[in-house]
Structures are given as structure tokens and as C-alpha cells.
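My main concern about presentation is that the manuscript never shows what a single data entry looks like. An entry of this sort, consisting of the sequence and the corresponding C-alpha cells, reads as follows:
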Amino acid sequence: MKEFIRMLGELKYMIPVLRYQWPQADENASLSHSFQESTNKFGERPFVYFEEETWTYSEANKAANSFARYLSSNGVKHGDKVVLFMENRPYYAISLLALNKIGAIGVLINTSLTGDPLIHCINSSNSVKCIVGAERAQPLQEVLEDINISNKDDFLWVEDTNEYALPEWAINLKANLDFDDNENLDQTNKVTAKDVACYIFTSGTTGVPKAAILPNAKLVAAATNITMAGYRINHEDCMYNCLPLYHSTGLMLGLCAAINVGAASFIKRKFSASSFWQEANEFNTTAFVYIGELCRYLINKEPSEAELNNPIVSMVGNGLRPDVWDTFKERFDIDRIIEIYGASEGNALFMNLFNKNKTIGMTSAEVALLEYDVAEDEILKNDEGFCKKITNHDPGLLIVEIGPNAVFNGYTDKEASEKKILRDVFKVGDAWFNTGDLIKTVDVGFAFGKEHYQFVDRVGDTFRWRSENVSTNEVGEILNGYKDVNMANVYGVKVPGCEGRAGMAAFSLEDFEGFNWLEFSEYVENNLPKYARPIFIRIIQEMDTTGTFKLKKNELRDDAFNISKVEDKVFCLKPSSNIYELLDGNWLDKINSEEAGY
């Protein structure tokens, strides 16, 4: 009865979301329109807190207007692309707003990129200029001869700390701005919902990074719904945002959401678990935009006084795994955890509107879960050649129907976009977006009949061993439950003479010499079925992650258990044993000659 009453209270937030209509294509709905509206209402309120700086909405709007006029007077037109290569700081937001005010497209580059990936992202965008933070000038300088921007006037250098000097190949942006010419631009009235606001690149874990297209309509709609039913914040709130603004979580779920209601944002260059709660208290951050790995880092820190009575009420993000969810919510006394699921290039958004536990929530889009053969990496079909739907709570491949109410914007690369579309799925002529993710339905109790879902794994990450499907995420959650394991990266590796892939896990240890392998082996045996137990364990020095803290698997998968190739220690479970042993050359030879008995 208590849950039923709580759910009735949720209705008043859900109804506006269900009634919400996406902006019409030619409507003046954009990031810059939202920002100017908030500036008109809350101009003297804080927009951004950053290190020693505080910017009000009015100050940021004037700076963005001055920058926009400079860009326009120097040849940047509506629809032109401009690279933005800068760490999180106020001028990142100001630069993006300036571009949006004149209808230009921000090409948001991952700040960890160097060399060939950086060259690819810049050249594939066909950008006319590059805004570069002083802190990222060096990696850009190293590829200058290989990119398709060459004129000195096209490199707009934005000062940072005094340790950086203006390079000879760029101009100082701020020195060229007329800060007195700071009124809103007439051009902004020509920017519409259908115009592209920015390109956000994929992580590149399955090939070269691809630029996902984000129109203004998507930014505005996501921000509106997330603030209305997710955070439930207003102009008096402050959001903690340490996620990179070149990524959709930090940008759409973070900065854009705050702008939508005139809230403040506390932004950081990088996440720090040791200073998180102190900063949350200092800036009274009532909201937090997260990814799951950050929550795990915070859980692994020793309890502190700073976390007690902390101000965070609601958090919105993605990737919070079930093994962390309850502990995080209870330890830090968080009222609302609104897990989101969606891809930058995708056409559906799942949201945990009802504040249920361990779910990505529901969606208004037309979706289906398909039967999928993990071993053969293929979708199963019926005798008529159409796909088969999952009819129970088993994991299935999530697809989203493409239509007027679920437009697939895809990538700038049309060939790459087409590869993400499945056609003739249930009938001739239909088209669906292939998310590449395995999802399952879950029972969350009373939810007004709305189906709820839970993320299981990426298609390429789930593997098959002993005729069973093994989820890397689910095995990782179990391993992370052992007291000395902080973050296990699980993946499948080929074993000579064996079908499928054997499980392997990599993690670091603070005290390798003191690690109790017998106790750990017993823990694995007691908590995982035999087919899901990692056959190999690799002890690494440091976990390699993407800029958004996603675990990198490809290199580890390629290295496998080849101790002649890697310097790390590798342990293994032999077929006749339940205790992990150090892998040596003799046993490796037996494995490679198919004599090990796996």
C-alpha cells in the first residue's frame, strides 16, 4: 500500500512527460534559445562554478554573444562546422553557446585523443575553424600537418592557466573579442529545432570514432523531460557535473538540463572521489549527473564526515549496476536515482521516471527484444524469415522502430548509419534501429502497467562458454563483491580446441602479496555457476578506461592469457581444480597444444 500511494504521487510528474510534444522542425527551439530564456529570467543567478570562477547567466550570455559576433564576422555561417577541443571549463559552454547562436555546429572532440584518432575526428567533420583550449594545444600541434584546417586565423586559442603560451600557429581568441558588443543576435531567431547543434563522437571501441548527429530538438526535448520528471530541480538548485562535456551524458543530462531551468552547474575538469563530498557540500549541489563507474569509486572510498547529511537529493545518469545501486542509495541517503538509457545516435530514451530500483525504466518509443544467438553473433529468425521476439524475461537484442515519432539521426557517415538499421524485421518495409545492446524486462512491482527494463550487456561483450551465455557485466558485479576487488573487467577469450570463449577477468590489487587466492577462489566457486567462473585472472597495474570511464576490453581480449606477450601475472583455474594458480609456461604450452583438458 505504501508503494501504491508513492506511485500515485509520481503521476503528477509523469503526465506532463507523456503529454510532451517534441519541438516542430521549424520552431525556434534550440540550446541558445533555452539559455537566453533562462538569462532573461535569472540573469544575475550563477550559471557556472569552476575552480575560482563564478559566472552568472548574464555574464556568460554576453561573452557568448561577443564570441558569436566574432565568428559570424569572420566567415562562420549557419550550418558550418567548428571543432571544439577543450577541457571542461566555462569557455567550453560559452563556445558551444556562441556557435549555437549563429546556427553553427560544434564538433565536440574527446580531449584524450591524440594522433590518428584526433586527425580522423577533425578531418571527417570538414570543419572551418578549431577552438582549442590552451591545455590541449600540444596534441593538436603534433597533428597540424595532417589535418584539413591550416590557416592561423582558423585556430582560436583560449587561454587557460599561466603555464601555457600562445602558439605561433593560432590567434588569442579573447584578445580579438569586442566584449562591449554583447547584445543578443538577430541570427539566433533563425536557428530552429531541426538544425544540428553538435556532433558527438562514439568512443571508437568498435573501430574509428563516428560522429553522432544531435539536432537542437534532441537537446531541448531531453533536457526538458529530464528536469521535469528526472531531477525535479529549478533555478535555485545547483548540479554537480564532472563528466566531459564532449559526451552526451555530461552535455545533455548535465549542462543542457541545468540551462533548461536556470540552475547552476558546478563543473570540473575531471572527477575526484577524494574531493567529491567536500565540493558537493561547499556548492550545495542538490543534483548530480553520473555514470555508474563514478558511483563505484565513491563506494570504494572510506566513509567520511563530508558524506553525512550531504545535499544531493536526485541524480540522473547511466550505467549504475545492480550490485552498487542499493549500497550507494542507502549509504549516501539519495532520494532519487533516475537511471537513463539511450545512445547519442539513437532514437529512444529510457528513463526511470518512477524512481524504481535497478532499472533503466520505461520508454514511449516502440521497442522490441529479439532472440539473439550469442555464439553465432546473429539474430534468430522464424520460418518466414522474420525476427523472433523474446516472450519472457530473458535478455534480447534491443531494437527501436524508426518513424515520425522516433527519428533516427544516426551518424554523419551515411554508410555507418545504414549499418545500424535493421530492415524487414517483422514485416516487409519496416525499419528499426539496432542498439547493439542486450536488454531484459524486469518486475519492479506496481508501475501502472508500464514495462520496465534492465541493461544486461553489449552484444560483443556477452560470450558463450559450455553452451551457456555469460554476461560480462553480471560476472563483473559478482567479482566486485569480493572485498579486495575494486573494478573487475570481464571478457571472453579463445582457448585452442574449445567452442566459444572462456571467461577472463582483469583487475588491480592494492596489496598483491597479501591477496588471499584461496579465499577468493572459494568466493568465486560459491557465487558463480561453473560455466561463468573466469578461467583466467590477469592482475594489472591500472585499469584502462575511456574518457567517460567505460572499461576498455579490446586490447585485453587480444592479449588474452599470453604470458609471453604481457608482463602482468596471470592466474588460471585448471579443469581439475577450483583454486586459482599462477599460469606458467608449461601450462600455457598445454593450453596451446590442446592438452590442458578445457
